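Example (one chain per record):
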Amino acid sequence: MHYAEGSLMNWLVMKLVFMKIPTQPMPFFVRPIARAICDQVLKKLVDPNLRTGLDFMEAHLAKNHWFAGEQLSIADFQMCFPVEAALARTGNANRYPKLKAFRERVAARPAYQRALAKGGPVLLTD
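Predicted structure:
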């Protein structure tokens, strides 16, 4: 259950932050430096760790229907948003068919549909 917040979300938040920094207001001469630093942090630290996490989850879901086995559990609810964010932010969702299938199974559940109807769609801002 704690993988969602203790491991995966850390890298997803870092990805979001390092993608946003170069788009923020700053002196024109600083922007290329900020962009270069952010690009390197993403390339050498964040993206490899995200890829490792996504590969790990993909391999797990290749052997299990849900994250904690064959029955839906709180672990799956914990993983819903991180999986959604990871598939959206990595730009390579087709590499992870088991994660996409997990997302679709969750989204097809009547309770999930009721939650969307009540609270609105999941918004992932860049």
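Caption: Helices lie at 3-20, 31-63, 74-90, 97-108, 110-119.
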